[in-house]
Amino acid sequence: MQNTIVIVAALIYAVAVIQAWRVLPGADALKAQRTLIFPGFFLVISFAGALLVRPFRGALSRHLWISFKTGFGQSVISVLVGVGVLILVAGFVFWQVHAAAHGGRYPGGAFSGYAAGIGLLAAQAILSRGMEGDPAVRADIEVD
Q1: Strongest mean pLDDT among 57-66, 89-98, 130-139
Q2: Rounded to an integer, what distance in angstroms lies between the CA atom of residue 68 and that of residue 105?
Q3: Distance between CA atoms of 130 and 112, rounded to whole angstroms?
Q4: Count of alpha carbons within 13 Å of 5, Cβ hemisphere only?
Q5: Residue 103: phi, psi to the nearest 5?
Q6: Residue 140: which of 55, 70, 41 has the closest Cα?
Q7: How far is CA 132 from the centre of its chain?
Q8: 68 falls in which pLDDT band (50, 70, 90)?
Q9: Contact at 8 Å (CB) between 113 and 42?
Q10: Can you tell me the mean pLDDT for 36-61?
Q11: Please, are residues 49 and 56 in contact by the beta-carbon 8 Å criterion?
Q12: Which of helix, strand or coil describes residue 73?
């Protein structure tokens, strides 16, 4: 399920970037900087930080374990809630793009924040894969 959420988030991000390139003013270099380069940096930092910084990895692992134990992410409702949150955040990004296209602030921060979230989701997917591969953890997950 974690992989599906990462893929959905990445697809939504790709659509937002395409929309931004269509409607935002400015040179291609500015658009690339604000929708791809800076956000890519934040994605890598959040992904690496979640996996390499022990306190962050521990906190994320605990969160995943609690999610497994409570069944969150395992039911249709929890998956729909997760996708719903992604869609709401994506709506904010699209709103920022629309506002910038009509004279508002450039939405670089919205893209960077969303990309950082994708980095965390990808780290979560890797950690959950590892948890599911541990026979003791797997047995505990399947019992509940």
Answers
A1: 89-98
A2: 40
A3: 27
A4: 25
A5: 100, 0
A6: 70
A7: 21
A8: confident
A9: yes
A10: 95
A11: yes
A12: coil
